[in-house]
C-alpha cells in the first residue's frame, strides 16, 4: 500500500516537479527568533479566510440572494436545512474571528517594525487586505437581510450622501436605484461573493509572494537600525548564521495555532449558534432599534458623540486621512529603529487606538444616548419617590411618567440615559431653573412649553423639587434670602 | 551553473567581446517588418475591443445614477382617514419597484393633519443617519432609536445630532385623496 502511494507520488512529482519548486519554498531558511508564537497571527488569518470561503460556498448553495426571498431562506437555513444553522454560525463566527485575528496580526506587524524597509509593499498590500476584509464584514452583514441590514444600509447611504456634489449619484450607484430594494441586495451579493473575495485572493497571493521574496521579519532588537545600504546583506548573514528551515521548525507553531483557532470557531458556532436574522426587512415596521455588528459599533458610537458641526467633515475626511496615513507610514518612517522597545510613540499609538476602540464599542453596546423608548410605560415610579408627597406632587410624578420624561431621564436607576438622572435634580436646579428647563428645553433637551399646560408644569416642577436626598438641601437662588434665614444685620 | 563547455549549445557559449552572433543579421532590420506591424495592429485591435467591451459594461453598472430624480405622485388613501390634530403612520408601495423587491418596497411615512385642510407628511428617515423615527403623541415628539435625535410635532429639530428637521413630502389633496410626491430615499443631498 505504502509503495503504491509513493509510486503515485513520484509519478506526480516527475510531472509537477513539486519537490523542486515547493520543497525549497517550504524549507527556506528563516531567522531562528521568528520561530515564535508572536509570528502565528498572519497564517491564522489566512486559515480563517479559507474557512470563510468554504462555509460561504456552502451557504450559497441554499441562500436566495433576492430581496423578497433572502430573509425566508435564512430562516430556512436556521430551522429546516439540516445543519444549516451550524454553517451559518461557522460563517458568522469565522468572520468575527477573521476581523479580530487580522487586527492582532496588524498590531504585531506594526510593533515589530515589519513594515519598514524593504517590506513597505507587503504592508501596503496588507492595508488593502484589511480594508477588503472590513468590506466583507459590512457586505456580509447586508447578506443577513433583516431590519439591521436594511437600516444599516440606510446609515451607509446617509453618510455617502454627505459627499459634496456627487453624493446623490454615489447613493444611487451603491443601492442600485432610488431606494434600498431588490437591486441593493443583488449588488451587495455580487460584492460579497465575487468582487471583494476576488480582490482578497489576488492580494493574499501578492502578500505571500512578498513575504517569501523578502524573508520574514527578523526579531527586532533595540539599536539594530534599518539601513537601506546594509539591511538586506545583514539579513542574509543572519539567516545564514542562525537560520532554521521554515518547515517544520517555524511552521509547527503556525499549524498548532491554526488548529486551535479553527476549534475555537467551531466551539463558538456550536455554543452560541448563528447570528439572527432579526425582523423581516420591512421598512414599515418602524418599532426597531437598528444596531451594526460589533466591528462597526465603535463607528456607530462615534456618530452619536461627535459634535454635529464636525460630523460631516469627519465622515468624509477621517477614512481618507486614516488610510493615507497607513499607506504613507513605511515611506515616512521606513528606516531606523524597528523594536517596539525603542519606539515609545508607536506603543502609545497602539494603546490609544485600542482604548478608543474598546471604549467606543462598549458605549455602542449600551448606547446611553438613545432614548429608552419603553421606559415611560414599562418602568414603575419607585415608591420612595412617592411616599409622603402632596397630591400636587403626586400629580407631577404622573406627568413625568405620562410625558415620557423617563425615556431620557432615569429615576431610581431605571429609564433612559440620554439626559441626567433625576434622583437628585432638586440639588442642581432651583424652582425657576426647573421651570425654564422644562418649558424652553436646551442643552440637548427638547422644549415642552407647547406640550404642557401651565397646571402640568406647576405639578411637574413641584414633584421635581422634592427630588433630593434627605441629608442634602435643594438648590437655592443665591440672590434671594433662604427661607427662615435671618436678614443680614 | 558549471556546465561542461563541450555539452553547451554554441549560442550559450561565452563569445569573445566584439564578435557578432552568427544569427544576428549585420544589416539593421527594416523600420516596419511584418511581425512588428502585426503586433502593433493586434494591440490597436484589442484597445478598440476593450473600449467597446468596457463602455456598455460601465453604462450597465452606473445606469441607476444616470436618472436625476426618481419621483412620482403616490396616493396615501382618503384624506379623511387621518383625524385632525393627530399624526399617523401611512404606508405606500414605492412606485419604482420590481416584483422581487418583496416587503422592501413598502415605504412608511408620518402624516400629520394639522387642520381640516392642512397636512404635513414626513419621511420616517432621521436626517442624521437615516434610522426610522417614532412618533410619541404623549410628548409630541419624534424620537430616533439610533443616536438619540428628537423632533417636534411640526418636524423641526428638537435635540440630538440631526443637522436639520425631518424631510417633508410635497403633497396635495386630489378627489379627497391625500397624494404625496416621493420615490427615493431622502438624504441631506436629495429630496424624498
What does this structure look like?
The complex is a heterodimer of chains A (489) and B (192). Chain A is an all-alpha fold. Chain A has 2 domains: 24-366, Cytochrome Bc1 Complex, Chain C, CATH 1.20.810.10; 375-465, Orthogonal Bundle (Cytochrome Bc1 Complex, Chain D, domain 2). Chain A is built from 18 helices and 2 strands. A two-stranded antiparallel sheet of chain A has the order 1-2. The termini of chain A are far apart. In chain B, 15% of the residues lie in helices and 26% in strands. Chain B has one helix spanning 34-62; strands at 72-78, 87-93, 106-113, 119-123, 134-136, 141-143, 150-152, 157-159, 170-174, 177-182. The radius of gyration of chain B is 35 Å and the shape is elongated. Chain B folds into 2 domains: 29-66; 72-182, 3-layer Sandwich (Rieske Iron-sulfur Protein). In chain B, strand 5 and strand 6 form a beta hairpin. At the A-B interface, helix 7, helix 8, helix 9, helix 12 and helix 13 of A face strand 3 of B.
Strand content of chain A: under 5%
| CATH level-3 fold name of the largest domain in chain B | Rieske Iron-sulfur Protein
- The value of Rg of chain B in angstroms is 35 Å
Overall tally of structural domains of chain A: 2
Number of contiguous helices of chain B: 1
Strand content of chain B: 25-35%
**What order do the SSEs of chain B take from the amino end to the carboxyl end, as H and E?**
HEEEEEEEEEE
Q: Which bin fits the share of residues in helices of chain B?
A: 10-25%
Report the span from N to C terminus of chain A.
114 Å
Descriptive key words:
heterodimer, A: 489 residues, mainly alpha, Cytochrome Bc1 Complex, Chain C, Cytochrome Bc1 Complex, Chain D, domain 2, two-stranded antiparallel ribbon, 18 helices, 2 strands, 61% helix, B: 192 residues, alpha+beta, Rieske Iron-sulfur Protein, 2 domains, four-stranded antiparallel β-sheet, three-stranded antiparallel β-sheet, 1 helix, 10 strands, 26% strand, elongated
Amino acid at each position: 500500500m505504502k509503495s503504491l502511494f509513493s509510486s503515485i507520488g513520484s509519478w506526480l512529482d516527475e510531472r509537477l516537479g513539486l519537490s523542486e519548486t515547493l520543497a525549497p519554498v517550504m524549507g527556506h531558511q528563516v531567522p531562528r527568533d521568528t520561530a515564535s508564537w508572536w509570528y502565528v497571527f498572519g497564517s491564522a488569518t489566512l486559515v480563517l479566510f479559507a474557512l470563510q470561503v468554504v462555509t460561504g460556498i456552502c451557504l450559497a448553495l441554499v441562500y436566495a440572494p433576492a430581496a423578497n426571498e433572502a430573509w425566508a431562506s435564512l430562516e430556512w437555513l436556521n430551522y429546516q436545512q439540516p445543519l444549516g444553522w451550524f454553517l451559518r454560525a461557522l460563517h458568522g463566527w469565522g468572520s468575527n474571528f477573521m476581523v479580530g485575528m487580522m487586527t492582532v496580526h496588524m498590531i504585531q506587524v506594526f510593533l515589530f517594525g515589519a513594515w519598514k524597509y524593504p517590506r513597505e509593499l507587503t504592508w501596503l498590500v496588507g492595508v488593502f487586505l484589511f480594508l477588503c476584509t472590513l468590506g466583507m464584514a459590512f457586505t456580509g452583514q447586508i447578506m443577513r437581510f433583516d431590519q439591521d441590514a436594511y437600516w444599516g444600509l440606510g446609515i451607509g447611504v446617509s453618510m455617502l450622501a454627505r459627499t459634496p456634489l456627487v453624493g446623490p449619484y454615489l447613493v444611487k450607484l451603491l443601492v442600485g436605484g432610488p431606494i434600498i430594494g431588490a437591486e441593493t441586495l443583488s449588488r451587495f451579493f455580487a460584492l460579497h461573493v465575487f468582487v471583494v473575495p476576488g480582490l482578497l485572493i489576488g492580494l493574499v497571493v501578492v502578500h505571500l509572494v512578498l513575504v517569501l521574496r523578502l524573508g520574514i521579519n527578523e526579531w527586532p532588537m533595540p539599536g539594530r537600525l534599518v539601513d537601506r545600504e546594509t539591511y538586506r546583506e545583514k539579513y542574509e548573514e543572519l539567516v545564514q548564521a542562525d537560520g532554521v528551515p521554515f518547515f517544520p521548525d517555524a511552521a509547527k507553531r503556525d499549524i498548532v495555532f491554526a488548529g486551535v483557532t479553527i476549534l475555537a470557531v467551531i466551539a463558538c458556532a456550536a455554543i452560541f449558534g448563528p447570528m439572527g436574522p432579526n425582523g423581516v426587512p420591512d421598512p414599515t415596521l418602524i418599532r426597531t432599534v437598528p444596531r451594526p455588528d460589533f466591528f462597526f459599533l465603535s463607528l456607530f458610537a462615534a456618530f452619536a458623540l461627535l459634535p454635529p458641526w464636525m460630523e460631516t467633515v469627519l465622515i468624509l475626511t477621517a477614512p481618507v486621512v486614516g488610510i493615507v496615513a497607513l499607506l504613507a507610514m513605511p515611506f515616512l518612517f521606513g528606516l531606523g529603529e524597528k523594536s517596539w522597545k525603542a519606539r515609545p510613540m508607536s506603543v502609545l499609538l497602539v494603546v490609544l487606538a485600542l482604548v478608543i476602540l474598546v471604549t467606543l464599542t462598549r458605549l455602542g453596546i449600551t448606547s446611553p444616548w438613545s432614548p429608552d423608548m419603553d421606559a415611560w410605560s414599562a418602568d414603575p415610579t419607585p415608591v420612595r419617590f412617592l411616599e409622603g408627597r402632596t397630591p400636587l406632587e403626586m400629580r407631577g410624578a404622573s406627568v413625568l411618567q405620562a410625558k415620557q420624561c423617563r425615556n431620557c431621564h432615569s429615576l431610581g436607576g431605571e429609564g433612559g440615559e440620554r439626559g441626567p438622572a433625576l434622583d437628585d435634580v432638586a440639588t442642581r436646579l432651583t424652582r425657576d431653573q426647573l421651570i425654564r428647563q422644562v418649558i424652553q428645553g436646551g442643552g440637548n433637551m427638547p422644549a415642552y412649553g407647547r406640550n404642557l399646560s401651565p397646571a402640568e408644569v406647576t405639578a411637574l416642577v413641584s414633584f421635581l423639587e422634592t427630588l433630593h436626598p434627605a441629608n442634602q438641601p435643594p438648590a437655592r437662588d443665591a440672590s434671594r434670602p433662604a427661607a427662615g434665614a435671618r436678614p443680614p444685620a | 551553473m558549471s556546465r561542461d563547455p563541450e555539452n553547451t549549445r554554441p549560442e550559450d557559449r561565452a563569445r569573445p567581446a566584439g564578435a557578432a552572433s552568427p544569427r544576428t543579421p549585420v544589416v539593421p532590420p527594416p523600420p516596419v517588418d511584418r511581425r512588428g506591424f502585426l503586433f502593433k495592429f493586434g494591440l490597436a485591435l484589442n484597445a478598440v475591443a476593450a473600449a467597446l467591451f468596457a463602455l456598455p459594461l460601465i453604462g450597465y453598472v452606473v445606469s441607476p445614477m444616470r436618472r436625476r430624480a426618481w419621483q412620482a405622485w403616490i396616493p396615501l388613501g382618503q384624506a379623511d382617514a387621518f383625524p385632525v390634530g393627530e399624526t399617523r403612520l401611512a404606508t405606500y408601495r414605492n412606485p419604482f419597484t420590481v416584483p422581487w423587491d418583496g416587503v422592501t418596497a413598502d415605504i412608511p411615512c408620518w402624516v400629520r393633519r394639522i387642520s381640516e385642510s392642512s397636512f404635513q407628511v414626513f419621511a420616517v428617515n432621521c436626517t442624521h443617519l437615516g434610522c426610522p423615527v417614532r412618533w410619541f403623541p404623549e410628548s409630541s415628539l419624534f424620537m430616533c432609536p439610533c443616536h438619540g435625535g428628537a423632533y417636534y410635532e411640526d418636524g423641526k429639530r428638537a435635540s440630538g445630532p440631526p443637522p436639520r428637521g425631518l424631510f417633508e413630502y410635497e403633497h396635495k389633496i386630489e378627489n379627497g385623496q391625500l397624494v404625496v410626491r416621493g420615490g427615493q430615499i431622502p438624504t441631506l443631498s436629495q429630496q424624498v
